[in-house]
Amino acid sequence: MSKVAIVTGANQGLGFSLVETLCEQLDSSWTVYLTARNEERGNAAINKLQEQGLSPILHLLDVSKEATVHAFANHIKEQHGGIDILISNAAARISPDTPQSEQVAQFINTNNHGTYRIIQEFMPLLQENARFLVVASSFGSLTHLSPSLHAYFDIATNSLENIEAVMDEYVRLMETGKATDLGWPDWINIPSKIGQVASAKIMARMMNHEASEKGILINAVCPGLVDTAASRPWFDDMSSAQSPKQAAQDVVWLATLPVGAESPYGELIQHRKIIPWQ
Ligand SMILES: NC(=O)c1ccc[n+]([C@@H]2O[C@H](COP(=O)([O-])OP(=O)(O)OC[C@H]3O[C@@H](n4cnc5c(N)ncnc54)[C@H](OP(=O)(O)O)[C@@H]3O)[C@@H](O)[C@H]2O)c1
């Protein structure tokens, strides 16, 4: 059976370049899945890569819908037995021109509950020496959150479901205008990224024993500032931003750490270095 690499949200932006770079670096014993929620955009991305002589496989996957994540996991289990690399990258965009309270529900459903759906469905499918990454951000550290809220993200005691409930409560507080008074950041990207990193760390804690026996590595990763349509509206100066292809290099390095690597494990990594959790 071939080895399998999967990238979610891969028809554009960083995800597209992750698939491109994986196809370039992995040998012919690998099958690389470019997943996308929209068939037309997915096919356009596949065509672009085929023009370069690369051969990823398109699979439709909308991480905001449990049924499609479940169906894809079943497909992978039946066709390949499990996964060797999974990069959970899909993310909804937010606009600076629309109140955050009107965008928060969909944003959290895709970015946080979507990450949870991927973890739940694919955690049992990790093969020996698998690499599992959640693309998050350097904002996903407790240093960006008021100390009064840190207990919500206690990675030593919380379950994945506890983090899901915290994110739902955050949506409720944003939608009812109460979040700021309780000390939550104004920018919904910060609690969302902290929630994603917490989930990756809790998954690593849950898998700790099995992962060390099987050589599995689980981490969150920040690609740094990347010039995509998602980031452009938020930053006045993009002169220091990397192209998606440049940003993909360090993420793919982490996703392809060689057999025998024991670290990093359960960390948030940016440019090959650990970002402290708090
Ligand atoms: N850009 C940066 O500077 C930066 C910095 C730090 C972290 N990150 C993180 O890097 C990741 C990629 O960001 P990006 O800048 O490349 O964003 P992007 O250009 O907006 O790409 C996001 C991808 O996710 C897909 N997506 C959206 N909703 C989805 C869903 N429900 N199911 C499946 N796929 C879905 C999009 O598909 P459609 O084309 O169909 O919308 C698109 O392919 C995100 O996790 C982001 O938070 C980015």
Note the topology.
Layout: E1 3-7, H1 13-25, E2 30-36, H2 39-51, E3 57-60, H3 66-80, E4 83-88, H4 100-122, E5 126-135, H5 160-175, H6 189-214, E6 217-222, H7 244-255, E7 268-270, E8 273-275
Parallel strand pairs: 1-2, 1-4, 2-3, 4-5, 5-6, 6-7
Antiparallel strand pairs: 7-8
Bound molecules: NADP nicotinamide-adenine-dinucleotide phosphate (NAP).
CATH topology descriptor: Rossmann fold
Which blocks of ≥5 consecutive residues have pLDDT under 50?
A: none
Second rung of CATH, namely the architecture: 3-Layer(aba) Sandwich
The total count of strands amounts to: 8
Number of domains: 1
CATH class: Alpha Beta
Radius of gyration: 18 Å
Name every ligand kind in the structure.
NADP nicotinamide-adenine-dinucleotide phosphate
Order of helices and strands: EHEHEHEHEHHEHEE
Determine the strand fraction and express it as a percent band.
15-25%
What does this protein look like?
The protein is an alpha/beta fold and 278 residues long. It has a single domain (3-275), classed as NAD(P)-binding Rossmann-like Domain (Rossmann fold). The chain has helices at 13-25, 39-51, 66-80, 100-122, 160-175, 189-214, 244-255, and strands at 3-7, 30-36, 57-60, 83-88, 126-135, 217-222, 268-270, 273-275. Strands 3-2-1-4-5-6-7-8 form an eight-stranded mixed beta sheet, with helices on both faces. Helix 4 packs antiparallel against helix 5 (160-175), helix 4 (100-122) runs parallel beside helix 6 and helix 5 (160-175) packs antiparallel against helix 6 (189-214). The mean pLDDT is 97. It binds NADP nicotinamide-adenine-dinucleotide phosphate. NADP nicotinamide-adenine-dinucleotide phosphate binds at residues 8-9, 11-15, 37-38, 41, 61-64, 89-93, 110, 135, 137, 222-223, 225-226, 228-231.
